[in-house]
Write a structure and sequence with these properties.
Elements lengths: L1 H9 L3 H5 L2 H10 L2 H14 L2 H20 L25 H34 L1
Helix pairs in contact: 4-5
Protein name: Metal-dependent hydrolase
Organism: Fodinisporobacter ferrooxydans
Keywords: Membrane, Transmembrane, Transmembrane helix
Length: 128
């Protein structure tokens, strides 16, 4: 399958990339539940609509990552702890990648349609 082949071609540089400490720190920050909770608090306090959707997407991403990363495991409660939790299934299996791609596509269609309908309603409201 072409997808498996393309990932195998990329593997030689992946271990070198992930040995760099800055890469792991950035990855831990982006997958840190405490950091996402802080962002959620800021979004709720200041009523920032786009930040609410970013945080919801971030939490879904982290929940999926917890179960699907047997390799390159993240520290989900960083900076509190650097302890990692290995996943149940490997992310790079073709079935999961197909499921993930469809889920992302559906989420984008939903988000764009909500945004488009809201803009259309606002346009019609201002025209009358």
């Amino acid at each position: 399958m072409w997808l498996q082949g393309s990932f195998q071609l990329a593997q030689p540089w992946l271990p070198q990339l992930f040995r760099q400490p800055d890469m792991w720190t950035l990855d831990s920050m982006m997958h840190s539940i405490p950091i996402w909770l802080c962002l959620a608090g800021i979004g709720l306090f200041f009523r920032i609509e786009w930040l609410k959707w970013l945080v919801i997407g971030g939490f879904f991403h982290i929940m999926i990552d917890i179960f699907t990363h047997k390799q390159f495991i993240d520290a989900y409660i960083w900076p509190v702890s650097k302890r990692t939790i290995p996943g149940i299934v490997d992310y790079h299996t073709p079935v999961f990648m197909a499921f993930d791609g469809v889920a992302i596509f559906l989420a984008l269609v939903y988000g764009v349609s909500r945004w488009g309908l809201k803009k259309l309603y606002m346009f019609r409201k201002s025209a009358s």
